[in-house]
Amino acid sequence: MKLAALGEVMVELAPQAVSQGSGQKALLAQSYAGDTYNTAVYIARGGVEVSYVTLLGEDPYSEEVLTRLADEGIDTSAIARLPGRCPGLYMIQNTADGERYFTYWRGEAPARELFADPARRDALKAHLNQMDCLYLSGITLAIMNPEARAELLAFLNEYRANGGRVAFDSNYRPRLWASAEAARTVVAEFLQQADMALLTFEDEQALWGDERPGSCLKRNSDFGVAELVIKRGAEPVLLQVDGVLTAIDVPPVSSVVDTTGAGDSFNAGYLAARLQGASPQQSIAAGNRCAARVIGHRGAIIPRVEYFADAAGGAVAEAAC
Ligand code: ADP
User: Fold this and answer.
1) Which residues have a Cβ under 8 Å from the Cβ of 93 and sit 6 or more positions away?
2) What is the per-residue pLDDT across 199-228, written as a single tens digit (0 to 9) for each?
3) Contact 195, 164 (CB under 8 A)
4) Which residues contact 45 (CB under 8 A, 6 or more apart)?
5) What region holds the Carbohydrate kinase PfkB domain (predicted)?
6) Secondary-structure class of domain 2-8+33-84+108-307 per CATH
7) In Å, what is the CA distance from 281 to each residue of 15, 273, 288?
8) Annotated domain spans of the chain
9) Under 8 Å CB-to-CB from 189, ≥6 apart: which residues?
10) How far is the CA of 259 from the centre of ligand 1 (A)?
């Protein structure tokens, strides 16, 4: 089974408090993250062949992204490079009340050109047509230009007609859209091309104004989503397959360190299991397990050693990858 994830990976700068004599000094830790990138990494760790599809620059940070993808065994052959452009960047700010704020510099990010260049598009479509599943998110759609998005939508229709499956997470980020109405229009079009929707209820509430999950379940059935998963933090995950609803408990996680990447890693666990033949119910359990590992550590992408560490003895189980 092969999956391609489409989207944007950014440079991340996160403050680290460091004691210096009697005071504290803030240093910045530099890393890489992005919703579909995070999911791609954990799907690959789950044993599925993954291709990451984006555009990068020719700068050292873009090089490093390629190296990290390759280190995860992810195919980078469909990543185009745009000379003179650099990946987007964001900074995390930790406030006194424990909240995290994100500031972005991504207006010129090369990933915004996804699907935009007609000269590259046919080769990219040929690459995507080799995949069993495509994964994209509302963030992927928000950063694309409208013409490129329309091309992608038309391609998904053909791709599904040829037996490919599409998985989608709405990941609604209001700042990326001109208005909620604009986001709803685009997200609705793509949900109508989604075989699997892996949605977070909080995002659905922000985008559609749902008070209860019922309206979310109904809307997505009306869009024709056959396999719908609704994540609700520590609350039971809702699964609706061909109209049949099940609520599946989330096992408690003893120490939740950082929920960054919870939804992305859940999606990865779910899709990796699903593509390897597990049932939707089994795949929810795999999604919960993957998210539990990630929220037990700081950062969206946790080191491989920690990811594969055996819960019982701390032994490294690289063989499982
Ligand atoms: P998002 O990161 O998109 O906001 P959620 O907060 O809904 O997503 O969490 C996604 C998944 O992460 C949940 O379905 C669950 O598996 C896991 N998770 C999140 N928060 C907790 C928690 N407090 N305890 C246990 N699991 C959690």
Assistant:
1) 15, 100, 101, 102, 103
2) 999 999 999 999 999 999 999 999 999 999
3) no
4) 72, 268, 272, 304, 307, 308, 321
5) 2-303
6) alpha beta
7) 38, 10, 11
8) 2-8+33-84+108-307
9) 153
10) 7
153: pLDDT strictly greater than 70:
yes
3-state secondary structure of 101: strand
User: Would the pLDDT of 320 be above 60?
Assistant: no
Ligand 1 centroid from CA 257, angstroms: 12
List, for residues 87-139, the tens digit of each pLDDT value: 999 998 877 777 788 999 999 999 999 999 999 999 999 999 999 999 999 99
What tokens does 117 get? Answer: 């260049």
CA distance 264 to 39: 5
DSSP state of 153: H
Query: Is residue 266 in contact with ligand 1, taking CB distance under 6 Å?
Result: yes
Contact 313, 268 (CB under 8 A): no
SS3 169: strand
Most confident of 246-250, 254-258, 296-300: 246-250
Atom of ligand 1 nearest to the CA of 251: 25
Cα distances (angstroms) measured from residue 163 to each of 130, 157, 271: 11, 10, 17
Which of 173, 204, 250, 267 best tests ligand 1's pocket when mutated (most atoms within 8 Å of CB)?
Answer: 250
Q: What is the dihedral of CA 48, 151, 204, 107, to 10 degrees?
A: 90
237 lines ligand 1 (CB under 6 A): yes
